[in-house]
């Protein structure tokens, strides 16, 4: 998806040892740069990644996770375009977080005092942006893969439109027997 955007630089900020990724057969596409995440929590890691990419000369930076592979390049293009008129672009998730955050400069404090992994992430981020007097725009809401129900929702969507996330669709179809984890089974 990001590969099709043309001249933008692409980074994979990863946790752990990249050698483990190679041993697992996960290849990084040509043209991608890889960087180890730095920081204690998600907010600190995001802030450091944005700061580093801006330090290298980027005028606009968008961060996406790997848990919304169906997002598509059209939404990334819209986010980049909106950064011409807004300081920040957010892609809200149904669970109260966001699947995308883009900035045209590091918005001070936006990643601090956020209850990461809770349903208040988007609201806390918006409050931080308003406190910093940073303008922002919201993309259409979507969902990401955080819970069992999210995987079921992705399965239903990809059954109808497998081309939106071909690798995930193939994995669900061939390698993953949809069965709830033991903790959700009733006795």
List the helices and strands and how they pair.
Layout: E1 10-14, H1 18-23, E2 32-36, H2 42-55, E3 61-64, H3 73-82, E4 88-92, E5 98-103, H4 121-131, E6 136-138, H5 148-160, H6 166-175
Parallel strand pairs: 1-2, 4-6
Antiparallel strand pairs: 3-5, 4-5
Helix pairs in contact: 5-6
What descriptive keywords fit this protein?
187 residues, alpha/beta, Spore Coat Polysaccharide Biosynthesis Protein SpsA, Chain A, 2 domains, four-stranded mixed β-sheet, two-stranded parallel sheet, 6 strands, 34% helix, globular
CATH architecture of the largest domain: Alpha-Beta Complex
N→C terminal distance: 43 Å
User: How large is the count of helical segments?
Assistant: 6
Question: Total domains, how many?
Answer: 2
Bin the strand percentage.
Answer: 5-15%
Residue-averaged pLDDT, rounded? 85
Explain this structure.
By secondary structure, this protein is an alpha/beta fold. It folds into two domains: 41-138, Spore Coat Polysaccharide Biosynthesis Protein SpsA, Chain A (Alpha-Beta Complex), CATH 3.90.550.10; 148-184, no CATH class. The chain contains six helices and six strands, in the order E-H-E-H-E-H-E-E-H-E-H-H. The strands form two sheets. The protein has a four-stranded mixed beta sheet with strand order 3-5-4-6, sandwiched between helices. A two-stranded parallel sheet has the order 1-2. Helix 5 crosses helix 6. The model has no long low-confidence stretch (mean pLDDT 85).
